[in-house]
Each structure stands twice: as structure tokens, then as C-alpha cells.
């Protein structure tokens, strides 16, 4: 058969996609084994039935044909209103295009900002799809390292140096951050914005966790001086409204960029089903109270985790300012994140994501999704900590 394109055969750079432990856990579940799955960011409570009812009514009313490709006007206006309310940046429907989820928005944003072969910067640790998304858009991913000692916050000087060295076309940031939970403070964002303005590149800001902030406050880099014209913000209802399967997201940016993204949508997704957009509009019109209710279990479990982890010394938690995950340091066990996650799954049927799935800087860490009921979460986290303590003691004994 003819060869496949190098673009598709190199999406994972010839290696892992980072999801092996997740796949192993799902195979066990398919075999009837009970596994506590703390891998992906999937709410244990599904989409509000009222939202599904709005979708159902819209479908029955006939909104099942081709939809407006940039998004139905009312939805774009509602997204713009929400963005303005939260950021203070003047935003209209001309600044918004609706996409099939945040992942499609990330791809479209890189296609819009990166010519083939140029460098696209991103921060390490990073969400597992980032590098493949950049490659799919024809660009070359380049990671800018962070350190656990600084809470995995990016150093603007390191970003500036990387941008100079590579002549980067874009920088992808994510705050609140998946996997680390870091919420970028004003000083960090000011430094990144200064670099973007000075070196004239785009910033793609993944803000899908903006409703899940436990400490501090979320600040969009688009709100900083001179950044609205060089920033594409990725948003989604997946996390804020437990609508992961509905595939509804957006990009907010300059009208000229949004107009070109319309052209891309015509030749790729051809829009999002109208009845799903109607459901999204209904969801957003429920206001902040609905979003706060969706986020509440994760805030509660973060406190449960803080209490459990604070009572032991084998496993350390990276300070978590936001998002639905914990990022845990397992280096005291002597195992890599991959080995720890596999051993935990084998011994206790608890599935977590290895830090190595999220980049080299995350080696020796694991990500724990706070996505099971409180009692199950409490029990699983205590077992994880006890398992880590056993391994750490065995390591010390072997070293004597």
C-alpha cells in the first residue's frame, strides 16, 4: 500500500501517546475487574438533564441540519458576554467562533498562527495532546522547561530565550494548568505578555479550567495591555458544565483571525450540530451558580486530599491552585511516575496518570483526577499514600 503521510505517522514522534496506564485500566474494567479510575478529567456526575432536555427539544424542533459554521448568533453573543463579564476585555460575537470542543480549538488555533515547519512553544509539563496537536498543524513543538521548586510556573526569561533561539510563531499556555494545578499569577503573565509583544508572536491561551480556581484568581493573558490583538483564547463547556461528550468549545480572538478560522471550519468540521449549540446556549444562560455547582466536588476533594497528604511524608502534593487534579511527587519511592502508576494499578487496582505522560519535567510525579465520589476518593488516596510509604521504607532499608 502507499505510504501514509509523515504528518500523521509522527504525531506522537514515533513514541507513546502517554495513555498506556489508562488503556490498561480500561482493559481490566472490560474484564469485570473493579478499578478506581483517577486518570481522565471526566466528571462522575454527567451532564445536567435540563441541558440534555434543551438539546432534545431543539433536535425535535428540527435543529438537526447544517448549523451556522461560526456558531449560532445567540451562542456567540452569550460566549462573548461571558468573556467580557469575566475578563473586562470588550468582546463581541465577531471575536468568537464555536468549535467541536477545546481540542479542535487547540488544533485550529495552531493552524491559524503557525506556518508549516515553524516552531510553536509550549510549557512542560503539558496536557498530553499538546505536542501531537502542534505536529498535526504542521508546526514543530518546542518545550520550555519548568521546575517543581517554583510550582511549575513558567519563567518568562526562559520563554524569551526559547523564542529568540527558535524564532517561534506561537506560545501555548494553560492556566489553571493541567496537569500541575498551577494558576499563573499576574507577574508571570505580565512577563510572558512582555515577551510576546517584544518578539511579536501569538499566544494561545488554554483556559478551559477557568471555573475551577481554588486559590488566587484566574487572569486571562488576553486582558493585559496589547494582548487582545495577539491572543487566541481556547474555551470549552467540557469542564465547566460536565459536557465532555457534547464536544462544544470556542476560540476568542481578533475578528480578522476569527474570520480566517471560519474558512478553516468550512473545510474541516463544517460547524457544530445546531441542537448541541442550543444546549450550550441553555447551559451558559444558567449563570455562574450552575458552574459553581459543577466545580464544588473538586473543591471539596482538594480539601480532603490536603488533609490526607498533610498527615504523611512519603507523597508530596504540588500546591494546587486550580483544576480537577492533584499532582503528586512520588520520587521518594525511588520509582518513576510510570513504574509507580503501573505498580499501584497492579497492587491496588487504582489507576492514575504517570507524570511522564505530561513531559520530561513531570518525571517522578503522578496526576490524580478528583473524579470519583468523596468516600471512594478518600479511600483510594489513603491507599496510594500507604503504598508510597511502603515503597519509600523499602528503598531506605535497601540503602542501609
Automatic annotation (TrEMBL):
It catalyses: L-aspartate + 2-oxoglutarate = oxaloacetate + L-glutamate. It comes from the Bacteria. The lineage of its organism: Bacteria, Pseudomonadati, Pseudomonadota, Alphaproteobacteria, Rhodobacterales. GO terms for molecular function: L-aspartate:2-oxoglutarate aminotransferase activity; pyridoxal phosphate binding. This is Aminotransferase. It is an enzyme of class 2 (transferase). InterPro entries: Aminotransferase_I/II_large (IPR004839), AspAT/PAT-like (IPR050596), NHTrfase_class1_PyrdxlP-BS (IPR004838), PyrdxlP-dep_Trfase (IPR015424), PyrdxlP-dep_Trfase_major (IPR015421), PyrdxlP-dep_Trfase_small (IPR015422). The keyword Transferase applies. Its EC number is 2.6.1.-. Residues 35-384 form the Aminotransferase class I/classII large domain. PROSITE patterns: AA_TRANSFER_CLASS_1. Belongs to the class-I pyridoxal-phosphate-dependent aminotransferase family.
Amino acid at each position: 500500500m502507499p505510504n501514509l503521510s509523515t504528518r500523521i505517522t509522527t504525531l506522537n514522534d514515533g513514541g507513546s501517546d502517554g495513555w498506556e496506564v489508562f488503556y490498561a485500566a480500561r482493559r481490566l474494567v472490560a474484564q469485570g475487574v473493579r478499578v478506581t479510575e483517577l486518570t481522565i478529567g471526566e466528571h462522575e456526575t454527567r451532564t445536567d438533564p435540563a441541558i440534555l432536555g434543551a438539546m432534545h427539544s431543539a433536535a425535535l424542533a428540527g435543529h438537526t441540519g447544517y448549523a451556522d459554521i461560526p456558531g449560532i448568533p445567540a451562542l456567540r453573543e452569550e460566549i462573548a458576554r461571558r468573556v467580557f463579564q469575566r475578563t473586562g476585555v470588550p468582546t463581541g460575537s465577531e471575536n468568537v467562533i464555536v468549535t467541536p470542543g477545546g481540542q479542535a480549538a487547540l488544533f485550529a488555533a495552531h493552524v491559524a498562527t503557525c506556518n508549516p515547519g515553524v516552531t510553536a512553544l509550549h510549557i512542560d509539563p503539558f496536557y498530553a495532546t499538546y505536542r501531537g496537536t502542534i505536529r498535526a498543524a504542521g508546526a514543530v513543538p518546542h518545550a520550555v522547561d519548568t521546575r517543581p521548586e517554583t510550582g511549575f510556573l513558567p519563567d518568562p526569561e526562559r520563554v524569551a530565550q526559547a523564542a529568540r533561539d527558535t524564532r517561534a510563531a506561537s506560545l501555548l499556555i494553560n492556566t489553571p494548568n493541567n496537569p500541575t494545578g498551577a494558576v499563573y499569577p499576574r507577574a508571570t503573565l505580565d512577563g510572558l505578555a512582555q515577551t510576546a509583544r517584544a518578539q511579536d508572536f501569538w499566544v494561545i491561551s488554554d483556559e478551559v479550567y477557568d471555573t475551577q480556581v481554588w486559590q488566587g484568581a484566574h487572569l486571562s493573558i488576553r486582558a493585559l495591555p496589547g494582548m487582545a490583538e495577539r491572543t487566541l483564547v481556547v474555551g470549552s463547556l467540557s469542564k465547566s458544565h460536565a459536557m465532555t461528550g457534547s464536544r462544544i468549545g470556542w476560540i476568542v480572538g481578533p475578528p480578522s483571525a476569527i474570520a480566517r478560522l471560519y474558512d478553516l471550519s468550512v473545510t474541516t468540521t463544517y460547524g457544530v450540530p445546531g441542537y448541541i449549540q442550543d444546549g450550550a446556549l441553555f447551559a451558559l444562560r444558567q449563570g455562574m451558580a450552575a458552574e459553581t455547582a459543577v466545580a464544588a466536588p473538586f473543591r471539596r476533594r482538594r480539601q480532603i486530599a490536603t488533609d490526607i497528604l498533610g498527615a504523611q511524608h512519603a507523597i508530596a502534593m504540588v500546591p494546587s491552585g486550580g483544576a480537577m487534579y492533584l499532582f503528586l511527587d512520588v520520587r521518594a519511592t525511588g520509582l518513576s511516575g510510570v513504574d509507580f502508576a503501573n505498580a499501584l494499578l497492579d497492587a491496588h487496582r487504582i489507576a492514575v496518570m504517570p507524570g511522564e505522560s505530561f513531559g520530561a519535567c513531570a518525571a517522578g510525579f503522578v496526576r490524580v483526577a478528583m473524579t470519583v465520589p468523596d468516600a471512594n476518593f478518600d479511600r483510594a488516596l489513603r491507599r496510594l499514600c500507604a503504598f508510597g510509604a511502603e515503597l519509600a521504607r523499602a528503598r531506605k532499608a535497601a540503602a542501609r
